[in-house]
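Cross-check.
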Amino acid sequence: MYFLDTDTCVYLLKGDQNIRQRMEEEGKENVYVTIITPCELYFGAYNSQRRQENLEVLDDLFKNLEVRQTIFEVAQIFGEIKARLRSEGKIINDADILISSIVIANDGILVTNNTSHFERIPDLKLENWRQLLS
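Predicted model, tokenized:
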């Protein structure tokens, strides 16, 4: 189960062929987004100069990707991660902690270009599909 981070969706929308290739290899039925990603992307679309065009692009994207909601277990994971990061002085924003918590609760892998940011979260599996497979 792969979850595309918001940055990866932006690269996908810009035509990144490595991401498209990996999605095809893994099978679109195994690729998801958390509810946070559409929230962030729709916010960006509504704030853009090309609002209607961007909204249509996002509508098309999310027709092809299943969106995973949050479940109660996510709250527990979120609280643990945030407390640990705060005690270590490595805090990140709540949206990224929530994305991570949903991915962990679903035993998934977060696909992001921002691996150094998310590496602060223990037990979070990461991949960067912008890089070519060796």
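The longest helix spans residues 72-88. The chain has seven helices and five strands. Passed to J.P. for a second look.
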